[in-house]
Each structure stands twice: as structure tokens, then as C-alpha cells.
Design a protein that fits this description.
This protein is 30% helix and 17% strand. It is α+β, with helices and mostly antiparallel strands. The structure holds 3'-phosphate-adenosine-5'-phosphate sulfate (PPS) and magnesium ion (MG). Residues 133, 231, 234-237, 346-348, 350-351, 374-375, 394, 398, 401, 404 line the site of 3'-phosphate-adenosine-5'-phosphate sulfate (PPS). Belongs to the inositol monophosphatase superfamily.
């Protein structure tokens, strides 16, 4: 195992942008083990490359299918030397595309979430699924753009995507206005694809193109082969309530998650803000606006299996462009004493037993109030070292879906954390859309000591619980 070291060209490493409110933390020293690298090939390095050079490699923006290593401004994900199942593949191309695609998808989500806060409009409406869970234009919109962009970038491959939404509602006669809103949202976002280093469609997509892109996400996963897994808007409740949510994209090969990307548009760079609803954040931002150029919220995290590192870059905001030099390594917390540890869990008590986790917390000596946050932002919080523990115990009979965990699991692991079911076994992504065989619940920790204690505490209290 192990990969090549992180090798940044000196000009890129010398003057990293320094977001003023980076939570007081600086990037860690360069690690010894394998590392993803943003590497520039070819032309003479310049200490201040133009934004277009850094952000929009021509091999992606113009050519459709990316050709790594051929363009002048060629940013390459480089974690070579094995470490990955499947013969040491580095997934450079997949990782680069996935990060760009998630960045684009986050823009669509942000626009739809803002419109939800405005007086009623079709794009700002919340619809109800058969199971009465909410769904919005963003769910279908993200699914359509991710599907379209992945297909465009990997034209030479027959890609499979597992994702939550189907096209039934949109294709129905009642869905015409909704479909129109999805088409508008998708085209509004794809026209800006070059700012993420991706290609826009030659012509605006029509309704049937959108439906086709959504239908393409009909893979059901399984133990063999390669497929993408997408949760277009994870934490839909948080999304419709104007709070935290995530866009989660992962690649699974032969049953193993090989890369994960988590877009967290409302993730605050000051971790204490995770405790507050976004409406306070919006209020505070009005009272005391963040200084221009500072990185105050919104990030994309990414990691690839076997690399031993996970990364975060700022969300690309309105007038910005994706710039790989802004990526920073993230690492789990070093806290291993339960007294100082914070645990996080789902907000809704319908999704987990708050009373069971409160009992566990007490028995292992956790003293802080739990942090309740929507979506896989909880996984991002562990990877970033903002919390130490995640616990989820769904009611008996509920089956966890792979898209709710895949991207976060690989990011936590590569950032140094441990994530298993409550029996201490790894989550199994090889059995279709569900995490089959999951033992009781999910436990993620920043390190093995805390993890061991919590798994032990579950065993000790399970029989007396009412779950
Ligand atoms: N009954 C039940 N039990 C457990 N889990 C469930 C349940 N129902 C749904 N889900 C899945 O939980 C996903 C939301 O997880 P969160 O951590 O965001 O939950 S919470 O809203 O903060 O309570 C949610 O993902 P999204 O639909 O993407 O929001 C669901 O896949
Ligand atoms: Mg989800």
C-alpha cells in the first residue's frame, strides 16, 4: 500500500491563497505517504497563472472527453503507486471530473435553495414523494447535470449511475411545469460549465434530453463492475429548511468505494457555526458581511481509496473559477478522550434513536451536547476534524441506501477515521442499492480508540434498548 508523495510545483506551493477565516488552521506539513497532487505539466511555471489557466483546462472545456496530460494547463490528480484495489489504478481522471461536476451541481442547488426562500415560484416549490419525503427541482436538476456531464466527459465508456430519483413524476402529465423548471435550472447551470473546467452542451438541453439523463441513472449496483453512486441532494429536509445538505458522488468498483466527493455548500469554515441554523448565518452575514475573497462557507471534499489523505477546496462562488491550488488536506481530530469529544447525529428522531445515542454517550463518558446536523455534512465534519463521532441507529426494518454513505465513508477513512456498522464490520457496498447485512447502526469515529469504546458500549446496552 501507499502512494507517491505530494509534489506540488514550487510556484503552486509557494503562495497558497490564505483564506482569512480558515478557522485559524494552516495546512498540515506535507505528509510522507501517498498524496494527491495538483501538478502542472508543460509550459514554464508562472507564479500567478491566469484564472482561466488554472481553472479551465482546455482538455476538459473544449474537448469533451478529458485527456489527462496533453493540455498546456493540465492539472492532474496524482496518487500513484498502488494502494488501490484493482491493480494500483489512480483514478486521476475520474477524481478530477467528479470534483468539477460536484462543484457545478452545488451551484444549481444553491440557486434552488435561495429560490425556496423567496415567494412561491415553480423552481422554489417543494414536492412530496410517495413516502411523503420532500423533493425539489434540485434533486432532478442535479441528477440530470451529473448524468449529462459524466456521460460527456467519459464518452468512451458506458457509464452506470445509481441514484435516488426516477423520471416518473417529471414524465407524468402533472409534471410538465416542474419539468420546465428543471430544464431551466439545468441549462442555467450547464451554460457556466467552463468555469468548472467542463464543457457546456452545444445547444440548450430540451426536456427529452433531461429525462434521458435522469433515466440513465437506473443502475442498481451490485458486486461486479464499476458504477457511480449519486445522492443529488442528501439531507433534503435540511435543504428545504434552508440549512445543511450535501451533493454526494462516489465511484464503486467491484463492490468497493474507490472515490468520493462531497459538496457541502453551507459548510461553515468556522466550525462553531455548525451549531447554528443557516438562517442565523444569513443574518450574521448581513450584519457583518464576510470580507471579500475570504472563504467563509461552502466546500467540496474529496478522497480516493488507499491514498491516506482527503482534501477540501472552496466552493466556486458566483464570479469565481475552480482553482486546484485552493485545495487543502483535511484530517480527523486527534481528540481521543471522550470528555473532550463531540458526537453528531441526524436531526430527525424518525431517522435515528436520540435516546439510545444519549445513553451510549453517557456510558462512554461523552459530556458535550450532540451536534445535530442534516446530511453527510456530518461525515465531512468528522473528516475535517470538527467533530469526533457520528452515530446513527435507524428503526428496525429501515434499510440504509448506498448513496447516503458511499462518498462520506471513503472521505472519513482516507482522512484517518474509522467507520463501520455497530458490530465493527465495514459497510458493504456490493449488494445493490442497500447496505445489506448492516448490524444495528453506523458508527464513525476520528480514531480506533473512540470507535472501540462505542462499539463495546453498543453491545453492552443493546439488549436493554427498545430498538
Ligand atoms: N426512517 C428513516 N430512518 C433512517 N434514515 C432514513 C429514514 N428515512 C430516510 N432516511 C435517510 O436518511 C437520510 C437523511 O439523513 P440525515 O442524517 O440528513 O437525517 S436528518 O434529516 O438529519 O434527520 C435521507 O436522505 P435524503 O433523502 O437524501 O435526505 C434518507 O435516505
Ligand atoms: Mg440522502
Amino acid at each position: 500500500m501507499g502512494c507517491s508523495g505530494l509534489r506540488l510545483p514550487t510556484w503552486a506551493a509557494a503562495a497558497p491563497p490564505s483564506p482569512s477565516d480558515w478557522d485559524g488552521r494552516r495546512p498540515r506539513p506535507r505528509p510522507r505517504r501517498g498524496a494527491p497532487v495538483v501538478r502542472r505539466r508543460c509550459s514554464a511555471p508562472s507564479s500567478t497563472p491566469t484564472p482561466s489557466a488554472a481553472a479551465a483546462p482546455s482538455h476538459l472545456a473544449a474537448g469533451g472527453s478529458p485527456r489527462v496530460g496533453t493540455a498546456e494547463h493540465d492539472w492532474v490528480w496524482d496518487c500513484r503507486g498502488g494502494g488501490i484495489g484493482g491493480g494500483g489504478r489512480d483514478y486521476a481522471r475520474e477524481m478530477e471530473v467528479a470534483v468539477r461536476v460536484v462543484q457545478a451541481a452545488c451551484t444549481l442547488c444553491q440557486r434552488v435553495q435561495s429560490s425556496l426562500l423567496l415567494p412561491a415560484s415553480a423552481s422554489g416549490s417543494v414536492y412530496s414523494k410517495l413516502d411523503r419525503s420532500p423533493v425539489t427541482v434540485a434533486d432532478w436538476g442535479v441528477q440530470a447535470i451529473v448524468s449529462w456531464l459524466l456521460s460527456d466527459c467519459f464518452q468512451d465508456e458506458n457509464i452506470s449511475i445509481v441514484a435516488e430519483e426516477d423520471d416518473e413524476t417529471l414524465s407524468s402529465s402533472d409534471g410538465a411545469a416542474l419539468l420546465e423548471s428543471v430544464v431551466a435550472a439545468v441549462n442555467g447551470c450547464l451554460i457556466e460549465a467552463p468555469k468548472y473546467g467542463l464543457r457546456s452542451p452545444e445547444k440548450e438541453l430540451k426536456a427529452h434530453d433531461i429525462l434521458q439523463a435522469i433515466r440513465r441513472c437506473s443502475s442498481i449496483g451490485g458486486p461486479k463492475g464499476r458504477f457511480w453512486v449519486l445522492d443529488p441532494v442528501d439531507g433534503t429536509l435540511g435543504f428545504v429548511r434552508g440549512d445543511q445538505y450535501a451533493v454526494a458522488l462516489a465511484l464503486i468498483e467491484d463492490g468497493e468505494v474507490v472515490l468520493g466527493v462531497l459538496g457541502c455548500p453551507n459548510y461553515p469554515m468556522k466550525k462553531e457555526w455548525l451549531n447554528y441554523h443557516q438562517r442565523y448565518y444569513r443574518l450574521m452575514s448581513k450584519v457583518s458581511p464576510p470580507t471579500s475573497g475570504s472563504w467563509h462557507k461552502g466546500c467540496v471534499m474529496y478522497a480516493h481509496r488507499g491514498c491516506g489523505q482527503a482534501w477540501m477546496q472552496p466552493l466556486v462562488h458566483d464570479f469565481g473559477k475552480l482553482d486546484w491550488r485552493n485545495s487543502r488536506e483535511v484530517r480527523v481530530s486527534t481528540v481521543s478522550d471522550p470528555i473532550s469529544a463531540t458526537f453528531c447525529e441526524p436531526v430527525e428522531k424518525a431517522n435515528t434513536s436520540h435516546s439510545f445515542t444519549a445513553g451510549l454517550a453517557h456510558s462512554v463518558g461523552l459530556r458535550k451536547q450532540p451536534l445535530r446536523v442534516y446530511s453527510m455534512v456530518k461525515y465531512a465534519a468528522i473528516a475535517r476534524g470538527d467533530v469526533e463521532i457520528f452515530m446513527k441507529f435507524a428503526r428496525a426494518g429501515y434499510k440504509e441506501k448506498i448513496w447516503d454513505h458511499a462518498a462520506g465513508v471513503v472521505i472519513i477513512r482516507e482522512a484517518g477515521g474509522v467507520i463501520t456498522d455497530a458490530g465493527g464490520r465495514p459497510l458493504d457496498f456490493s449488494m445493490g442499492v442497500f447496505l445489506e447485512g448492516l448490524d444495528r447502526g453506523i458508527i464513525a469515529c476520528s480514531g480506533p480508540l473512540l470507535h472501540h469504546r462505542i462499539v463495546g458500549a453498543v453491545d453492552a446496552s443493546w439488549n436493554s434498548s427498545t430498538l
